[in-house]
Amino acid sequence: MGKKNRGGIIPYIALKSLSAIVNILPENPSLRMGEAMGRMAYSLSGGLRRRAERNLERAFGNEKSPEEIEAILKAMYRNLGLSFVELLRYRKIDTDYIDSHVEFHGLEHIERGLEKGHGVVLLTAHFGNWELMAMSFAVKGFRLSVVARPIDNIYVDGFINQARTYHGNTVIEKRNALKRLVQVLKNNGIVLVLLDQRASTTEGVVVNFFNIPAPTHKGIAGLVRRTGSTVVPVFMHRTGTWKHRVICRPPVELAITDNREADIVENTQRFATTIEQMIRKYPEEWFWFHSRWERRKKNGNR
Question: Is 24 buried (19+), middle (13-18) or exposed (0-12) by CB count in 10 A?
Fold first, then answer.
């Protein structure tokens, strides 16, 4: 099965075993377990931690001290540990859970977008607990088509996609997704896109992200120009160990002129700026491991 089954069945068995444990435990002990996993990962993931640290240093320059960056890193690992456990407990997420754990702000922006009849693109990033956010929308009655890259292990990929679709969402594989996305939006559906990873030279345009040139996927800008869809930025922010806030921001104002290519660059920049604004506000909630900018082999930032 090659790269698509990297690691074989062992990671899947470990994942299923851990899932069984956290689902047997009450919520409080299971989340404490997630915090412990976050601390352990911080201690053991030397290479990844250094990459995240370099990315933070590049993004914030002289704005933050080494102590502040270390604090952000520790908080990021904590959030990831908690988010991992919350994902594993996906079967326990229902209306009562969402009502007691998640508050929503700005849902009217999505509702108004749907009233226009051209579909809505939810713009987000690997921020907060993005997996729980997608599930929360489904439980609230907003069924999403989520664009995702397959995980390089068919067993783990199957497990994660089972969690993603359990509440009624649909997963669209990132590769060759355009045709399906157009159909969803033409049917006045909702698409969720994470637009915070580096794009290839053929798939992206270069925009500024933290004042650094960043190759960014241009497909969404082209898609919404074609479909006339509304772009609503959405983010899940952790307000406590068990609590979250989903923030739906006003729609991104799109540049629409006779120059299609210039509009795509401009709108992609607006999307990137929107994501950057949220990361600057809550830097500990972004996934700083990404090689977001261009490859720089000399300093090891890839």
Answer: exposed
